[in-house]
Amino acid sequence: MTTTDDHAQKPPRKDPWELPDVSGLVVGVLGGTGDQGRGLAYRLALAGQEVIIGSRAAERAAGAAAEIGHGVEGADNAECARRSDIVIVAVPWDGHKALLASLREDLAGKLVVDCVNPLGFDKKGAYALTPEEGSAAEQAASLLPDSRVTAAFHHLSAVLLQDPAVESIDTDVLVLGEARADTDLVQALAQRITGMRGVFAGRLRNAHQVESLVANLISVNRRYKAHAGLRVTDV
């Protein structure tokens, strides 16, 4: 029999759109000298986030940071990882495994956001690759057992991100991870960028299809000469 006391003991259900304040966190971008990394660094810094971009060479990172402006700093990958609270991985797929393996200690205890899309290209266009671990995000999780790995920012146009004439990036960001506290932080980070909304999309075991969808978006963009993103309806 259910009593009034039983109901009173249940904590109130959390509002799914009630997200934490991430404005004081330092965000590192590994691969911050590439197009996607530079674009994310620019947008987050424009929103007032403290951003450090990483590269294999500190001098290259510093040069790219100076070009981005808005207070962005540059450092080598290890220093970028150590100094950041949240670390976005935006490196090419072919360098993903080696880089993360080399930064295992530097990324310990960090919230890692993997936005890498394992893709191949041939004369027919882009196609999805399937990593041995299932996805790039799951590979990151296996390489970084002492980090909290999430996946997000896969479907963003680097062209739009880097274009200062574009004031709003109107798209949803699918966020995947194992702990709600972590995915809430990443959703909140996405929503620091004007026009974006972070939407929880499942656990890391579901990351493969999210990463793979980029191949479809590339086909859309080529056919329609666009920079397509995603919107999730009815939420």
UniProtKB/TrEMBL annotation:
User: What gene makes this protein?
Assistant: npdG
Give start-end of the signal peptide: none
Any idea what this protein is called? Answer: NADPH-dependent F420 reductase
**Per the record, a Pfam family?**
F420_oxidored
Task: Give the lineage.
Answer: Bacteria, Bacillati, Actinomycetota, Actinomycetes, Kitasatosporales
Q: Which UniProt keywords apply?
A: Oxidoreductase
The reply to whether rRNA processing figures as a keyword in the UniProt entry is: no
Family matches, as InterPro entries: NAD(P)-bd_dom_sf, NpdG, P5C_Rdtase_cat_N, STEAP_metalloreductase
Give the highest taxon in the source lineage: Bacteria
Pyrroline-5-carboxylate reductase catalytic N-terminal domain: which residues?
A: 27-118
